[in-house]
Structure formats: structure tokens, C-alpha cells
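Quick one: structure for this chain?
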Amino acid sequence: MHASGLREQWFHWAPIFKVLAVLWLVLAAFMAIPWLVLLIEEEPDAQAFAFSIAIVLAAVSITWLATLRVTVELKPWQMFLVTTLSWVTISTFASLPLVLGAPQLSFTNAVFESVSAITTTGSTVLTGIEHLSDGLKLWRGIMQWLGGIGIIVMGIAILPFLKVGGMRLFHTESSDWSDKVMPRTGGIAKATLSVYVGFTLLAMLAYWLGGMTPLDAIVHAMTSLATGGFANSDASFGAYVGQPHLLWLGSLFMLLGSVPFVLYIRFLRGSRLALWRDQQVQGCCCCWPASPWAWRCGACGRERAPSRL
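Got it. Here's what it folds into:
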């Protein structure tokens, strides 16, 4: 391929890598949180996180310098590539602390763990989770929490230049294709992030007051709102079977996390019936029999015949 052809190809790919570099930087910033915890506790896993952060920042620096003069104007195909590549690359980088630190998983198992966390799947290859360092427990929760909000939404909310074509980029990542509730993509991303953080802080407080340790309250709050289910023990939430109020709280916050956040935004912006008119919310509401032959919905009050096999 001629030099002009290579330059043309790079012209198409450079904006994608520039956006990815920004998202990697966000990941490195969150990776610094468990690193600081481990430094305070003087745990050996702090070195694993330090090396991981250094690797991510090196990738960010190289990519940013290579795309320094590139203007971010993403076309539809580039937006879809950004979404796909962000999940692939972030899952790979997020696995580094698991590869370098205890329990020193193989690369394949570490990537499986990070992919499971970031996609909020909840499957794990780890055993003896209780014996992991506090930093690794916290990192598992942070990975799942980031996956719950969506790394693209995080980037749009934090970095202004990602607003270019932002609503379409937001739609490539989000499963909620509702009408816009705000005139600017940055506004809806920030509002979504605010609701997500608010519910997470509320869950942390509720779990802590309910009897969890501070670390367990933080991790379980993040994974509950992400609806992923990572926990700090092999027994998962079963470790609290003797405290049923915590099980009820977990169910409550997972239900809150499963509702499209756009509905909360509409509710807070004055549309008080937005929540109750949504079919997903109505499906979660308790129903009671209005007669032997019909049921009344607890959300809308409408009667409907029961389904028959």
C-alpha cells in the first residue's frame, strides 16, 4: 500500500484511538483507587496495581501523542467501532491487576474475570474470594460498577470533546433508545451518572447501617446497582443469610438498578408519572386479584384477564 493510502487509513482510525485513549485514562484513574487502599494497608498487591497503571498510562501516552492533531468527528461506523473496541481493550487492561497480583490468574482466566465484571455477567473463576486483598475485592466491584453505567457514558459525562456525535455514540452503548430527555448528550450522560452515583451512595449507606463492614458495603452497593452480583465471598449474598434485611436491601437496589435511568431523570425533571407508565416498572409492581377471573395492575389500576395455558 502506498504512503498516501496508509495516511488515509490512519485518518479514519486515528479518531477512534484518540477516544479509546481517553477511556483508558478513565480506567487508570479508577484503578488508582484500590492502589491507594493497598498502599495504606501496605499490601504487596499495591505493586501489581502500580505496574498495571503504568502500562495503561504508557498506552494512553503513546496513543495520545500519535493522535495529537486529530479532530474527533466520529462517523456512525467509527462510533460502533469505538463501542466494541472500548469493551475489548478495557477488559484486557482491567485484567492486569489479576494477572500481576494475587492470586496470579492466568491471562485467560483474568480476562474472563474482567469481561464478566465489565459486562455485569457475574460469573467468576475465583475461589477463596474471602482471602483476596482488599484492593482486589474493591477492584472487582469497581469493574462491575463501571460496566453497569457503561464506560462510554462515563466518558461522555467526564470529557467534553466526546459530545461530538454524542447521542448516537450513547445509543451504540446504551440499551435505552427512549426519546431524548435533555437537549444535549453531555446533559443526559451527566444526569444518568448522577442518578447512578446517588443510588450507589444510598446503597452503601443502607448496607453499612444494616451491618456490613465498610468494604463489603461499598463493593456490594456497586455490584447491586450494576445488577452483576459480584461479592466478597464465595457464598456471595448467601453469607448474609442470617441477616434477611440485607437480602431485601440487595433485591431492592438491584430492582432500582434494572430500571432505565432515563425514567428517573424524567421523574426528577417533573414528569411524575413517567415511572408508573413504563411497562417494565408495571411488571415489577405487585398485582392482586380484582375478581376470580381478572387481575388488577398495582401500577395503573387496569384490569386484565389472567393468562391461560
